[in-house]
Structure formats: C-alpha cells, structure tokens
Design brief:
single chain; globular; Phosphoenolpyruvate Carboxykinase, domain 3; 607 residues; Phosphoenolpyruvate Carboxykinase, domain 1; nine-stranded mixed sheet; alpha+beta
Length: 607
C-alpha cells in the first residue's frame, strides 16, 4: 500500500509529516500479509542480520543477534513525559514534553536516510473488539515489522476498522542509524549509542516516540509502551484496567470453567503459570494470554478480559520441557529467536534448556563457544534476556476463547512474588480494598547479583506494574479502588496472594511449583465457586485449611503447616517496611483507604 491509499486524513497527514522529517528512501504501508512477512525476513537475511534455521527441525524460524548495547528494555532511558512532573509520579523518569519533543525531533531529522519507512497499522486485541485499541507504528526496521506481525494483528483490516476518523495511538520508531549513499548494515545490528536512546510516552496526547533501540519493548511499541504505559492512562480515564497480567482458563473435573488473571514481577513464573500442565487428575488449564490483560465491565457487572497481544515474546533461558512444555511446543516453527546460541546443525540452544550444549556453538556475540561445565565463570552462550517471538495460535494449550472480542469473565486476580519466607503459599483477601492493599505491596526478594543490592532485600513492585504504569502510582491505587465501587462485590473477581517460592531452613524450596500449582488453583477455583468450609479466617486473610490442598509427593503435612501459617513476626516486619519505606514514596496521593488497611492488619496481628 502507498500513503495515498490511506483513507484516514489525520493518519495520512501524520505519515506525510513523518516522512518529511525522517527522509526515508521510500515509504510502505504494511498490509499484514504472509508475503510481506516473508519479504521482511528475506531482507534481514540478505543484510546479514538474520540466520535461517534448520528447515527440517525448526521450519520457518530465524535467529538474530543484536548489538551488545541493545539487549533489553532500557528503563533509565524510558520516560513518561506528562505535562506535569507530579502526574508522572516518583516511580517514572520525567522530562518536560516540549523539551523532550524538541530533542527527539532533532534526532528524528533525517534519521531514516538510506532506509525504508514502514507504516504498521496494528490492533491490540481482536480486530473490532470493544476492548481493543488501534495503534500505528512508523519504523525503519524490517525486524520490527516481522515481530509486530507476530505480536499484534497487523494489516488492511485494521485500517478498515479505523475508518476515516477513528482513534489510533501514533507511534514513532527509528533505530537511529541513517545510511550514507551506498552504505549498508553489512551484518551489524543498527542502533544508536545508549545516551541517544529514548523510549518516550506522552500520556495527554497518547503518543509514543522511540529512538535508537531496535530491541524488544523499546521497539515493538504495541507491547509495553502502548499496551501498558499508554493504555493504563486511557484505562484510568475511561474506567477500565490495563494490567501486566496473564490470563488462564481452568476447567474442573465437572466441566465447570473459570478464568483467572495473575500479576507477578519478573522471574516469578508468570508464563509458566499461563501455560501450566496440571498434575491434578481431571483438571485442565488453557492459555488466553501470558503477559497483558485489558479488562472492561460487561453488562452483567463482571470484568471481561482480552489478551491484547497475538504472540509470545518470551525469555528463552530457563524455558524447557519441564518448566514450560507448551512454550517449547509453540516455538518449534515460525518463530523469531534473538540472542540465543546457534548449534552446528542450525538449531538453537540456551542455558537451562534441559540438556547439555550439543558440541561447538556460536554464541549470541557470534563467537565460537564450547561448554565447559567445570568453569563456573564461563560466559553464557545465550544472553540472559535472549528471546523467542512465537505466534500464540501455535500454542497447544491456547484456549478457543483467546480471540473472543467480548473477552472472558474474570473470577480471580492473583498477585505474588518470589518470597522465601513470611508470605504463605496462598492467601485470599477479605474484600476488594484488602485485595488492592495486597496488590500495592507486592515484592520479590532479590540477590546482590541481580540488582547490586544486599541479598534478602525486598524490591517492591506494586501490581507488577512498577516499570509500566504511565502515571502516578498513588493515583493508580486510587483507580483500582474506584473499580471496586463500580460493581457489586459478588460480581467482582476475588483477590489472592500466592507464593510458590517458600524455602526451608536448608534453603530448599518447600513447594515443587510448576504443574503442582494446579493444586492451589483448584482451591482458588472452589473459593470462587462459593465453597466456604475449606478456609480459616486469619489476621492476613483467608488461608486454606491444611487438608484443603492435596499434597504433592515429597511435601509433608509439616511442610503444609509451615507454608500455610501466619508468620506473625514476619508480617509485623512486612507491615513496618511498607509503612516506613514503601508507602511514603507516594506522598499525599497514597489513598487513605490503604493506610487504614495497614492499620487494621497491624491491629489484628497485635491482637
């Protein structure tokens, strides 16, 4: 398609202005076709940026290696440029929007010289859904075009749905590496230096401007940028929720179905839970989404959720047939791998894939690599943040309802983190306000290696939204409280805290996790079904009776008592940390209801 084919006059004007500013050699409007995807892959292969993988073992798959400076989201260069710094809040980086646009306009001037400008119309969510939103990303990266084909719904039907006057989120992206006459990338990943990278969000005007990075959420602007940072602002203004949550469908042995969402910080097993294979006989879990949930109220007063994405952008290391069989099956074909290792037979390998490296590899830096299990300091063959981009429709556990434009009715919210002690295996909130309190204090214990902090420190990540909320988190908590007032309590999802990561005195995990988590989901299912005799009320909420969760092999009754008790002294320390170190960050915007909840729990613990 050409620019003149665009029917939306505002969109056409925006693209024309972008082309004048960025001066590409040509402009293409993406149609979302298979031919277009194949052409993008061929362009990258011909440019030496991509390696086709073994067509017999991994049909339709390719491998990319990015620049070592461009391997992950760059939070230090990610900005919420609200009109007022106060509206961005203490957890976001802020620059005055006029100043930022002036700086970035200077960077964008001529930035696509020697390249093609691609205009990607995309829908976050099923095309035409009342919950979905449309974005248009301008980019000079065929890699981005190909990934967006997988991660969103791209094409002419999106433009048809947009019509001549519809709302869309305009998204600028450039790798920030213009080419001189006759110059080519010659196999070198194009990007700008770190101090020239910007991932910028303008909440009031609903715009995203990204420059200098070609990787992940910095460049695939439908993902974290639109689906969370901008969408969270739109959701606040329109009265719905845009959350960093998985969505799963669970069916009990009677054939009854419920849908559950869950928010977990990184490294807490969110994708594994979304694609869980139950060990509990007769139970079935299917995947609706593994990362993001958008939820609006239906006419019946219940919250209905869609997965706004169309693919999985998953971390490869640690993904294996034991930890996530369904993910491994999903990425056997038509998948883009980035920064994993290449084997001699042109397949892929990464650390914790479940087997030793098969001979000599080419690592993510393009160098020969031979596994030395005796060298604990050996650099990894795959980057720790290496990724796979795979179509959700290929997942063996994908739920039939995953593209239902109405969404699916949510019965429960799960919040959790990686907590070796204090937090029980599962705990149900007493009511909506108590549940919002629980979401607001989510945290994970980190190691010195992870974040250069003292081991054992709790890093708070409220609602697992710390890097992704597009406005002041005090106002975000207030929005969650307001959602609870929009419907009857019996229509709202129940709220639970879960913790798969409790350890014993020897430092070993008490609960085996993975498929055994279905035993906890079964208890949650029953609680949502109105079962009341399987829990006891405590100072921190409703805990399962010891016999209410069936024990996996290797977990004793004493273990269950340990992970289902109220650690009163631990919780007193938790409350003190929240009161002294966490809640004060949000100043006067922290809702009084949450301080009241804090006081109430402290009083119950001291009773």
């Amino acid at each position: 398609m050409e620019i003149q084919d665009l029917k939306h006059s505002g969109l056409k004007k925006w693209v024309d202005e972008a082309a004048s500013l960025m001066t590409p050699d040509a402009v293409e409007v993406c149609d979302g076709s298979q031919e277009e995807y194949d052409r993008m892959i061929k362009l990258t292969v011909d440019a030496g940026l991509a390696t086709p993988l073994n067509p017999w073992l991994l049909p339709g798959c390719v491998l990319f290696r990015s620049d070592p400076s461009d391997v992950a989201r760059v939070e230090a260069r990610t900005y919420i440029a609200s009109a007022s710094q106060h509206d961005a809040g203490p957890t976001n980086n802020w620059i005055d929007p006029d100043e930022l646009k002036k700086t970035m306009t200077g960077l964008y001037r001529g930035c696509m010289k020697g390249r093609v400008m691609y205009v990607i119309p995309f829908s976050m969510g099923p095309v035409g859904s009342d919950i979905a939103k449309i974005g248009v990303e301008i980019t000079d990266s065929p890699y981005v075009v190909a990934n967006m084909h997988i991660m969103a719904r791209v094409g002419v039907n999106v433009l048809d749905t947009l019509g001549a006057e519809g709302f869309y989120v305009p998204c600028f992206h450039s790798v920030g590496k213009p080419l001189a006459a006759g110059e080519q990338d010659n196999g070198k990943w194009p990007c700008a230096p770190l101090d020239k990278k910007y991932i910028s969000h303008f909440p009031e005007t609903r715009e995203i401007w990204s420059y200098g990075s070609g990787y992940g959420g910095n460049a695939l602007l439908g993902k974290k940028c639109l689906a969370l940072r901008i969408a969270s602002v739109i959701a606040r203004d329109e009265g719905w929720l845009a959350e960093h949550m998985l969505i799963l469908k669970i069916t009990n042995p009677k054939g009854e179905v419920k849908y559950i969402t869950g928010a977990f910080p990184s490294a807490c097993g969110k994708t594994n839970l979304a694609m869980l294979v139950p060990t509990l006989p007769g139970w079935k879990v299917e995947t609706v989404g593994d990362d993001i949930a958008w939820m609006k109220f239906g006419e019946d007063g219940r919250l209905y959720a869609i997965n706004p994405e169309a693919g999985f952008f998953g971390v490869a290391p640690g993904t294996n047939m034991d930890s996530n069989k369904n993910a491994m099956e999903t990425i056997r074909r038509n998948t883009i791998f980035t920064n994993v290792a290449l084997t001699e037979d042109k397949t892929v390998w990464w650390e914790m894939i479940g087997y030793d490296a098969p001979g000599k590899l080419i690592d993510w830096n393009g160098n020969e690599w031979v596994q030395d299990k005796g060298d604990k300091n050996q650099k990894p063959a795959a980057h720790p943040n290496s990724r796979f981009t795979g179509p959700a429709k290929q997942c063996p556990a994908i739920a039939p309802e995953w593209e239902d434009p109405k969404g699916v009715p949510i019965s429960a919210f799960l919040f959790g983190g990686r907590r070796p002690k204090t937090i029980p295996l599962v705990n149900e909130a007493k009511n909506w306000t108590h549940g919002v309190f629980m979401g607001s204090i989510v945290g994970s214990e980190v190691t010195a290696a992870a974040l250069d902090v003292k081991a054992g420190v709790i890093r708070r990540d409220p609602f697992a939204m710390l890097p992704f909320c597009g406005y002041h988190m005090g106002d975000y908590f207030k929005h969650w409280l307001s959602i609870g007032a929009k419907s009857a309590p019996d229509k709202l999802p129940k709220i639970f805290f879960v913790n798969w990561f409790r350890k014993n005195e020897a430092g070993k995990f008490i609960w085996p996790g993975y498929g055994e988590n279905s035993r906890v989901l079964a208890w949650i299912f029953d609680r949502c079904n109105g079962v009341t005799d399987n829990a006891v009320e405590t100072a921190i909420g409703f805990l399962p009776k010891i016999e209410a969760i069936s024990r996996p092999d290797g977990v004793s009754e004493a273990d269950m008592r340990e992970i289902l008790k109220v650690d009163t002294e631990g919780w007193k320390k938790e409350i003190a940390d929240v009161r002294e170190n966490h809640y004060p960050k949000f100043g006067a915007k922290l809702p009084q209801e949450l301080y009241s909840e804090l006081d109430a729990i402290e009083k119950r613990l001291n009773a």
